Amino acid sequence: MNSQTLFELVIGVAVLGLLIYRNLTARPVRQANQRVYLILGVIGVVETVQYLNNHHAGAIGVVALLGSLVLAAGFGAVRALTVRVWMQDGQAWSQGNWLTAGLWIVALAAHLGYDAALGNSKHLAGLGDATVLLYLVASLLTQWFIVQARAQRLNPAVAAGSR
């Protein structure tokens, strides 16, 4: 494992820790902190593009990346179902539980397992390490959209106003 790969993996694990912490904390359901999502997303895209350019993965790399993002969205959707959403003081709130946290860890393990399965191709070895941040952001956004929709069903006027 080279230093760039190790750095990408450490950043991914640190972001995962932050995401788990934020999921376990009761918070008002509101519009996402777009700045954070944008920063993490841009870093994830840059890391992914660098990987794809350096490894000349071509169409196979793009298909593998799309498969990873579908996996991320699937985990985000399942995790969103474990988040408790309720009304308090006229505002929609949400909070994950230990199952939510566990699913974050399983999602990361699945991503790295997917990478290991692709590792037989010299052009795709290390794809999971390079795309871990993009994967986490895709999963997070999927979860966020579903939790938002659930909050709006509780009280459409209040949930929309809490943004």
Question: What distinguishing features does this structure have?
Answer:
7% strand; mainly alpha; 163 residues; single chain; three-stranded antiparallel sheet
Can I get a quick summary?
The chain is mainly α. It is built from 6 helices and 3 strands, in the order αβααββααα. The protein has helices at residues 3-24, 34-55, 58-81, 98-118, 127-154, 156-161, and strands at residues 27-28, 84-88, 91-95.
Descriptive account of the structure:
By secondary structure, the chain is mainly α. The protein has one domain (3-161). The chain contains six helices and three strands, in the order αβααββααα. It has a three-stranded antiparallel beta sheet with strand order 1-3-2. Strand 2 (84-88) and strand 3 (91-95) form a beta hairpin. Helix 1 (3-24) runs parallel beside helix 5, helix 2 packs antiparallel against helix 5 and helix 3 runs parallel beside helix 5 (127-154). The radius of gyration is 17 Å and the shape is elongated. 35% of the residues are buried.
By DSSP, the count of extended strands is 3
- Summed up, the helix count is 6
Number of domains: 1
- Rg, Å, rounded: 17 Å
- Strand coverage percent: 5-15%
**Helix residue percentage:** over 70%
Shape designation: elongated
Low-confidence stretches: none
Biggest sheet details: 3 strands, antiparallel
Please write the string of helix (H) and strand (E) elements: HEHHEEHHH
Q: If you average the pLDDT, what whole number results? A: 85
Strand order of the largest sheet: 1-3-2
Tell me the structural class. Answer: mainly alpha
Q: Determine the N-to-C terminus distance.
A: 43 Å
